[in-house]
Known about the structure:
Elements: H1 8-12, E1 20-23, H2 33-46, E2 52-56, E3 77-82, H3 89-96, E4 101-104, H4 107-118, H5 131-136
Amino acid sequence: MRSKIVTADEAIALIRDGDTLASTGFVQTGFTEALLSALEHCFLTTGSPRNLALFAAAGQGDGKTLGLNHLGHEGLLRRVVAGHWGRMPTVAKLALDNRIQAYNLPQGIICQLFRNLAQQRHRHSPGRTDRRAQRAAATPGQDSGHSGRLRGRG
């Protein structure tokens, strides 16, 4: 039987252009630093994978170079849906410069999405939440959590 344990580089080799990533953890706890460091290295040396989408509920990293900051390179990401941007200034800069599509949704909504997917509720409704949570997901008049001008792309 083949081992389920792989190196970070072997795991990163499974990611294709345009794939969607989900990242969990809080600050630097429960975060896969080795994987995203390997992903950054792969992108910088080969130019691939590129145009990835990222879902992240909480701020992950040290606010400088660690954590989700490994993904702050133009071309690596195309869309980010996050509940906290303060710990990933390199990615936030891409959003502020309109280099990526950026959405800022409440951390609880993204966590509920992860929970539903893990419980395989996605067969019927991956983003199922109660009505109150749906109304709170984005401030009215703020374009449903959208943080940039790139709405029409992607």
